[in-house]
């Protein structure tokens, strides 16, 4: 007994030593894990349990008590045990033991649940924060993942707007220039064995001229004689075959594209979801609004449609034995007299957005109506054959769509997967129809591939968003659980004192986590599903593309993982913290739990394995393997998805690394903010604020990380959105070169070009400048396209180029932001401006004759230098060449040329400095282009005979809409077929996609701020609650309430504002880095726009959030008496 008493005295002295350290505001040394203290604590626990006259659930404590000689309590063993105690009796049957164990477990769980419910009732604010956090996590994750999985629909919508809602288009593969039809009747029978292959429809597309009937010389539109030059007595007129043209020469007319469609079949296959018009009545047509307005007709008017037979049903005419009526190998046109049933503005998905002169007629009525409009001179046998024919045997194209729902294969962020699905589907169709007889196209997929990089980068951004939201959610749940443990330290100590085991504490913590994770999981999924239905309807109303309203399986599983498993995982450190405190410190309610000094002592033998070092080493090893092997693999295999996943990991690593790096300067920044914003306050207040920031540093660190990550995330999202929008718009602008551009469907003849130029000059000051660009060499000379090859003088390196002749002021008219120039030749006759806009004019100097503007790529590939000779080889086909070295062979001419400048990018032209872009464009002056063409034997002798392709127009600010409307009116009256490129109209579909992306980014921004606000609320509540002793002391020595309120509001403001500044800096740095990468991929001059407005909003929110988070808790404490505050148990 003496030996034991000595041991206890020694332990008591050491224990008192630890208490003295705590009372001196030193750090908690309860974490010292030496054997001496362990034996003392076990002794104390045993005596506490026996003093309460209860049997310990933990058998270890009972054994310790008996070993320590506490024999005077053996009488307690004779008491009747609880039912759940006797569960290890080996003499009992296994089933009885199981039932006893089950009853005891249920009994314990019942008491744990009751305790949790009572605790939640007492701490409604804590439960509300926990429930709201888990609800928010489940709601946001399930909804965002479901929405993100459908984001490819945005690019599907862009593609369908561009080319129509056609998955696969089949045409004849005859290999000849003659028009060959497809037998749709036979094709339909071959595809009917599988219901998924039956969604198809025939189409005929023909060029035509639409003429107003009321202004023609003859007033009888139903009389066929005057149209075809047939007298009433059946004799021919002298005007054949131009009778109709001669009579209606003065009538308004315009070119049009006639679409013969089967409305019912196309509705069934989902071709034209937004098309609402019924089938076209017999003898009538639908006209597109632009075409109708150009010839001044409306609904109910009659029009003449002159059809080009050669481009549509020439096979039918051949079979009808009408070759005798051919003129110069071409069938004469058919003149149809038709009534305008209605007009429409948009194709509704039946064709692309570039179509503006569409004419629609019903398929099953087309041939019967043609029969009534044929030339009366045709023989009766031909009439009979045409009348008995089935137009379904003479289809130009067959459109095949995926089975319903045809959108599902496209809803995938990996375009390789989409392409695989479409290839599998199209291969099955071609195998049934005969792949050697049919050629196919995938219009939607082809258009999707143009936005491949944009879609991939959007997927990268969305992955970052999901990761950041998950990170914030996990950190918030962990923070709430940790705060719950810290605020229940005294309660946990009491529970341990009355006999609750470590397992019991663990179960209590898990039950606490489940108490708000289970209900929040149910309500989160329910509200996410309801909100998803609303979002799907809103999304469909904007894009016209329906998306599934249900939550995706991936979203539900991930939300369940976060809502159910993450709270359990996040409980590990709080449980460790709860069990790591010794009993005395837990029951100490007289001293504050806030410590400004910490002392930690570790055994050397415990440091044999460092977990943190092992984790860091593993991460670095995996990172090195990824960079050393996976990164080159993605480049060599051109696996963009794998490459973007690598970029995603690098981006996340950089983001989190910058956050951790910023935490090292956070305290310094907090002191600077205190000095900058509180210089006017009384000296005591900034001093207390600084001490509070130091004392709460560990707890505030979680809030600081959340705010820094949230703000970095918000800035990153904002920059990403602006980058995404700029990428979509800049691609359109770079291809066009200007906001307004008139393009000829074929080359403009010199007379047409002169008339257009005169009209533009007549617009006066509304037009700042305009310039011409030709079609690719040598088509401007009336020659079919043939390649132009540039090479080194030694013929070692060569590449094909598309050479365009441009006006002297081309770069001044084009968009200057796209012009990036490398090396430039010096010219004594011309001095360039700083922006090199006069480079196109320098090409017209004497020194620069025979000079080219070529891509900067060839400087590294060919070692081409300015003013150094290169070879310019042209090929003129024998059928066009004015001379040939070998009769019947093309004329190949090689000339010397020299680069004037190395171009990295230019408006309206394709230049690059990267080796991945070959077959680039080249620019040349108009005289030099004609000289090379003449030298090559092209049929041209002067620049006056050169044909042009496009006219770029630069309108003055504010006059763009006026110039646009006048150009549209003039183009409708031109004899040449032309179209007007209007940037605003062109990016309208992009604007819809950008708006959808902006809505999503705005939603995630709000969610990030709300999550961070929850963390700030809980952190400030705990800070104030644990400092009640200090608050009571300060109030007792005379500090007024207003001072205390200001102190904690200032602390909250400094914490939020410093974290916000760090987040803004990190987000801007990551966003700027991402833009640099995007510029490399897209080769577009995408600007970095710092979100100043957002910075102001952040500052205002910092003030508001800091006030809300601190004012409520501090006022609740200060409203009590000082004595009550001093006695609050934390």
UniProtKB/TrEMBL annotation:
Chain ranges of the ABC3 transporter permease C-terminal domain? 463-582, 1004-1121
Q: Name one GO cellular component term.
A: plasma membrane
Q: Where are the transmembrane segments?
A: 127-148, 453-483, 504-535, 555-575, 609-631, 643-663, 704-721, 999-1026, 1047-1069, 1089-1111
User: Low complexity: which segments have biased composition?
Assistant: 20-29, 51-78
Where does this protein have compositionally biased stretches of type Acidic residues? 34-43
Swiss-Prot/TrEMBL keywords: Cell membrane, Membrane, Transmembrane, Transmembrane helix
Region of interest (Disordered), ranges: 1-86
How does this protein lie in the membrane? Multi-pass membrane protein
Membrane listed as a keyword: yes
**Claim: Transmembrane helix is one of the keywords in the record:** yes
Which compartment or compartments is the protein found in? Cell membrane
* Feature: compositional bias, Polar residues: 1-13
- What is the protein's name according to its record? DUF214 family protein
- Tell me which species this is from: Cavenderia fasciculata
